[in-house]
Specification:
Layout: E1 2-6, H1 12-15, E2 16-20, E3 30-39, H2 42-49, E4 65-70, E5 75-78, E6 90-94, E7 99-100, H3 107-112, H4 115-127, E8 135-139, H5 144-155, E9 159-164, H6 167-176, E10 180-183, H7 189-196, E11 202-207, H8 212-217, E12 221-229, H9 242-248, E13 251-254, H10 258-263, H11 265-281, E14 288-293, H12 297-305, E15 312-316
Parallel strand pairs: 8-9, 8-11, 9-10, 11-12, 12-13, 14-15
Antiparallel strand pairs: 1-2, 3-4, 3-6, 3-15, 4-5, 5-7
Helix pairs in contact: 2-12, 4-5, 4-11
């Protein structure tokens, strides 16, 4: 089969190589899955760079979430078992963690429903306890993770403020349903949020960026607000001033979705059931900006690494049905 493999760490476009290799062999409790669509996530770039919290042995194939088909014909969502990631024709995955792909979504959309939307749901509902009528501030609102949070926030009845970089992304965030879009290239985030909320600030901040985004967020978070730390796409991990959190009376909560697979897998399945219902109702629908063949995966991962993508870019191996 064909698979992209990384033999040394570096930028995705430099270190990913498309090769012929054997199909992976399932271990105990695992199943072989044909890849129908593999969604590109920022962690795929971090894996290539050797900067992710999980470091598979070299060589490895990146690609952390797929929609695929099992040998018995089930259409499923899966997180491939590294080092055999999703940018390949076949992967192995833990049978117990497979989730049914929603019938209302095509393969690319279904692949994108998994990690980003699960992260959004756990972040907004389990960690932040977002309530209807509250104001949600989402950084990188036109990106894969941010776009999911925007849709989930609107589905929960929140007023959503999206922060983006550039007019094209501003247009995408507005189409996603943001009540207000702030272009950080030309607008001051703190001033805009305070003006939009009558000086109160955002009740919940969803931050997959870190760095300057976090620094701006804590200047415009509301009394008893909650800042949800999802990732550090900026490459800068902030050092929170806990005295500031004390004086302003806000909370800082981390969200590592992968832990729920180990600590509370029943909650992951319950979340998926809820997301499937929302998709069937049309309340959420992954924003797919581009669908590329397997040969285009390295360039696409690099674009995501550079922050150039809108919504999700999805890789579809040749022969994928939908």
């Amino acid at each position: 089969m064909q698979a992209w493999r990384v033999h040394r760490n570096g930028e995705p476009s430099e270190v990913m190589r498309l090769e012929e290799t054997d199909r992976p062999t399932p271990g105990d409790g695992q199943v072989l899955v044909e890849v129908l669509a593999a969604n590109i996530n920022f962690p795929d770039a971090l894996l290539c760079r050797g900067q992710y919290q999980v470091r598979p042995p070299l060589p490895f194939t990146p690609g952390v979430e797929i929609c695929g088909r099992t040998a018995d014909g089930r259409r499923v969502l899966a997180t491939p078992a590294l080092p055999h990631g999703g940018f390949a024709e076949y992967v192995v995955a833990d049978e117990a963690a497979l989730l049914p792909a929603p019938d209302t979504l095509d393969d690319a959309e279904a692949a994108a429903l998994h990690i980003g939307y699960q992260t959004g749901w756990f972040g907004l509902h389990r960690r932040a306890r977002l309530r209807a009528g509250e104001t949600l501030l989402v950084h990188a609102a036109a990106g894969g993770v941010g776009s999911a949070a925007v849709q989930l926030g609107k589905a929960a009845g929140a007023t959503v403020i999206g922060v983006v970089g550039g007019p094209e992304k501003a247009g995408a965030a507005a189409e996603l349903g943001c009540d207000l879009v702030i272009d950080r290239h030309g607008e001051d985030i703190v001033t805009a949020v305070k003006e939009a909320t009558g000086g109160r600030g955002a009740d919940v901040v969803y931050d997959p960026v870190g760095g300057e985004a976090y620094a701006k967020s804590v200047k415009c978070v509301a009394f008893e607000g909650r800042v949800i730390v999802v990732g550090f796409a900026s490459g800068v991990i902030p050092a929170p001033a806990l005295n500031h959190a004390l004086v302003k009376n806000y909370s800082i909560a981390g969200l590592h979705w992968g832990l729920y697979n180990d600590k509370d897998p029943a909650a992951v399945r319950a979340c998926h059931d809820g997301l499937t219902r929302l998709a069937a109702q049309g309340a959420i629908k992954p924003l797919i900006s581009e669908r590329v063949g397997l040969a285009g995966a390295a360039d696409a991962v690099q674009r995501v690494a550079d922050g150039a993508g809108i919504g999700r870019i999805v890789v579809r191996p040749s022969g994928a049905a939908r």
